[in-house]
Amino acid sequence: MHRANQVNLRKIVRWLVAGAFTTMCAIAAAQPRYGLSPEASAVFNRWVLATCIGDEERKLTEDLRRYAGPLTVAFRKAIVEGPPRDELRTARVAAEARFAERAKFPIQDYRIEGVSEKDLAAFSRVSRQSYVDDQVQRFATGYRANAVAGLGVVGGPGAREVLTRIASNRNDPLALAAREAIKAADQR
């Protein structure tokens, strides 16, 4: 084989390998988290990303129970892992935007009742980084707390043990959510 043909063949093989790798990455990225079906994944996401379910509670609870098997596994993993990186990035961007809006509000120009001067001064001193980090942490904790509540709804093998372990650790920020999930499961 001529040297030029060998170089061209190597380039073609590299492009084929790169194309196959890119295709596999795209397929993997398109897979719903935890191997859930698209339908179960949609229910999972609605639940863990909810800030309030209000009128949808009964319907969403029915949907959770419809996919109880796979959601039991997904909720257990979400409790440990927390939100995926892209959700954390979205929460960070939103927190940065809220901080920018908050910075436009000259608190000293308004009379605010029911809050001490000390608390208002502390509010004004919060740095962008501290504010954003706090908001992202609150989002991650809320996501995990929703997974705890979801596990309480779907139950499944070992769910009560997981909830009891979390509930018994007073230092765990998910302890209250776990106690409430156990209480709600006991009432069903």
Class inferred from helices and paired strands: mainly alpha
> What is the share of helical residues?
over 70%
Q: Helical stretch count?
A: 9
What's the number of structural domains? 2
Strand content: under 5%
Mean pLDDT: 83
Q: Describe the largest sheet.
A: none
Question: N- to C-terminal separation?
Answer: 75 Å
Shape: elongated
Radius of gyration: 24 Å
What's the helix-strand series? HHHHHHHHH
Low-confidence stretches: 4-30
Total DSSP E strands: 0
List keywords for this structure.
188 residues
How would you describe what is shown here?
- This protein is mainly alpha-helical.
- The protein has helices spanning 3-30, 38-48, 57-66, 68-81, 85-103, 117-125, 128-154, 159-168, 175-187.
- The longest helix is centred in the N-terminal third of the chain and has 28 residues, at 3-30.
- The relative contact order is 0.10.
Task: Give a concise summary.
The chain is mainly alpha-helical and 188 residues long.
Q: What topology does this entry show?
A:
Blueprint: H1 3-30, H2 38-48, H3 57-66, H4 68-81, H5 85-103, H6 117-125, H7 128-154, H8 159-168, H9 175-187
Helix pairs in contact: 4-7, 5-7, 7-9, 8-9
